[in-house]
Amino acid sequence: MKNSCLSIKREKFVLRDLNANPFVMNLKHTFQDHKNLYVTLQNFSMENLKSRIKSKLGLHNNEFNFYAAEIIVALKMIHNKNIIYRNMTPDNIFLSYTGHVVLTNFGYSKKFNNLKKDKTFTRCGTPGYLAPEILLGTGYSYKADIWSLGVTICEILGG
Description:
Layout: H1 2-17, E1 27-32, E2 37-41, H2 49-56, H3 61-80, E3 83-84, E4 93-95, E5 101-103, E6 110-111, H4 132-136, H5 143-158
Antiparallel strand pairs: 1-2, 3-6, 4-5
Helix pairs in contact: 3-5
């Protein structure tokens, strides 16, 4: 339970830093009582990219290009805030009511002082999407997100 609480608090602070990002789930309000932390998030479509791919048996080229471009822009905006996402999967990419991507699930995210120089050694994320340096325990930074992005794009392409 303790790790879960830390994850929620980390997600709260990361989402606060990313609140102006149009491709990230927006944090609306937070409050707490003596026992719980309450988080109110943006309302968005209940369809994630994984279910969209399965329901359509893949995506047309234009759809693929559109979603891939938005995911890349979203990740770049996250990295520009010195944050590593660490949970890029089609399950965590939802679609807004207007059809744009919305990244969710920032419980594994980490804020760095300098994303290009700092490293972390924590093993976390979805197993099939983890970069080799995470599995090897050699330390990693934002490049691990690029690996996960590549796996995600391959999954989107393959349907």
